Amino acid sequence: MKRIFFSIIFLLVIATSFAENRFEKQSPKLVLNIVVDGIQTEHIATLWNYFDDNGIKRIFGNGAVFTEQHFDYYSGGSATDMATFSTGTTPNFHGIIGNSFFRKKTKEVLSIVSDERYVGIGTQSGCSPENLYASTVSDELKVVSKGESKVYAIALDAEDAIPLGGRAANAAIWIDNQLGKVATSSYYNAGLPLWCNEVNTDGTIDQLLNSTWTPLFSAFTYKYPAANETNKVIPFEYKIGNQKNTEKAVRLFKQTPYANKIMRRLAIKAIKNEQLGSDNTPDILSVKFTLNPPIDMAHELLTAEKEDMYLRLDKELKILLDSVEQFVGLNNTLLVLTGTQCINLHPATLQSQKINTGVFNAGRAMALLNNYLMLLHGQGNWVTGYHAKNIYLNERLAEQKKIDFRLIEYQAQRFMTEFQGVQQVFVVNNLQNAGGDAEIEKVKNSIHQKNSGTIYFTLLPGWIEVDNDNKPIGISGRSRVSAPLVFFGWKVAEKKTHIPVTATDVAPTISQILGITKPNACTGRTLNVFE
Fold it and tell me: Which residues, including other chains, have CB under 8 Å from residue 490's CB and lie 6 or more apart?
């Protein structure tokens, strides 16, 4: 028995040593993924002289900078971008077609990560990466390291944190809208880490939820005027705690620089408490920040609010970099910074210069489409649902009325082309065999057969979709959607290139640097960040 016991111990030691030696001196100890919602290369250049030398300037000035990162699919929300960065492929493979989706069986719009099989921790909603059908870089790292690598993802919303973490993450962490607490799901075996619960109990979030956002610097030092001007002394003022309920306060909080402060604090706590990057087995920490203030022109650098968010984020990144240097060492860390899809100019700005633009209200369009189909084929709920340019038609009703469903598809397609602002309309079932056209390929990349609708359409340049309250939904399908991509730290060369790259290139590049298998649906290419 003793011989058997010592043999088992020996094998365990060998296995552990192999996992560590597999990466020894070949890979960075920590991969720090930073995603910034709303960041644009032009904005960085405009504000360059306003930044601290050890924040944004340090990353962009000493890293491999790709100024033109494009997205070869139409925007479905930030969750789609998170999944693309993680998997190295587009929605037609990874399945995350947007922040939410229309469940055909129950005819309801749900969060893309909603999963009632699991219990929320710090939230009333159960979540999981069930709709993420492709593996991520962190999943592959978990396999190669035999589970020894630690993976954490931190974001403001579950829809971003979960795709960033992948299926095998130790934990995906976010801020719950209803309760205003740091939250996770019982899907993750570790539950809510103690260092997350400390933020819930020490009053940090409550204090920020009751704060007021005013400019960081003197009003006279800002390049741009405030969108929400109050007076000459304080150009803008947003009282978070004045909201009628907790959910409204949390949603406003998530559009202020204080949300980034929480993200930075949680990231440092994760590094310290989980001892990320402390051995030769690489770990991954993904953190999502925001640069989208609570104004209509959230994506444009034309307001003091947007400028202030950049300046405050610069300070948060400096603190984060200093902590990484202290606990891991930047020479042992591969930092990857990128951004999500966003518009360059709001329709109001374009309209002021007489440039073609407009807003599209899908709710009204769907009502008219349903009335049109009833006029042709009789009473019934012909349009069963709509979400994010996906129209769901009632195939069962067509069967009951003994009408060829292909005729319904064709008629709906033709009707939608008549709407002002609509560029092209596609029957999803017909796209599978279509090819050769770049526009069609981009549409095909944007949909997934399981969750997408019967009809999919795109909008004209400069047009955006709005809800019944005239609030923008996503971004224009025809906007120039690019974002910077920067690799910094571990053995990365200092360079800057304007050669276009795609969001699908992030995952295979990280995989190659780590020396692991690419995600199983990866379609991106590997970028050279060393020369």
Answer: 28, 330, 331, 332, 333, 334, 513
| 98-155 pLDDT tens trace | 999 898 888 898 999 999 999 999 999 999 999 999 999 999 999 999 999 999 999 9
Using CA atoms, how far apart are residues 202 and 85, in angstroms rounded to an integer? 33
- Alpha-carbon distance of 386 to 109, in angstroms, equals 9
171: which residues sit within 8 A by CB, 6+ positions away?
152, 153, 165, 184, 188, 190, 191, 192, 193, 196
Interatomic CA distance for residues 159 and 176, integer angstroms: 11
C-alpha 432/C-alpha 445 separation (Å) is 11
Q: Are 510 and 141 in contact (CB under 8 A)?
A: no
Strands 151-154 vs 171-175: parallel, antiparallel or unpaired: parallel
- For domain 358-473, the question of CATH label 3.30.1360.150 is answered with yes
**CB-count exposure of residue 116 (10 Å: 0-12, 13-18, 19+):** exposed
364, amino acid identity? R
At 231, which helix (H) or strand (E)?
none
Q: What is the pTM of this model?
A: 0.92
| DSSP 8-class letter at 244 | S
- Boundaries of every domain in the chain: 30-342+481-514, 358-473
Over the chain, what is the mean pLDDT? Answer: 90
Burial of 363 (0-12, 13-18, 19+ CB in 10 A): exposed
CB 83, CB 91: distance < 8 Å: yes
String of DSSP letters for 107-128: TEEEETTB-TTS-EESSS--B-
* 192-232 pLDDT per residue, tens: 999 999 999 998 898 999 999 999 999 889 999 999 887 76
For the 30-342+481-514 domain, the top CATH level (class) is alpha beta
Alpha helices in 386-492 (DSSP H): 395-400, 405-416, 428-431, 438-446
Q: How many CB atoms lie within 10 A of CB 319?
A: 16
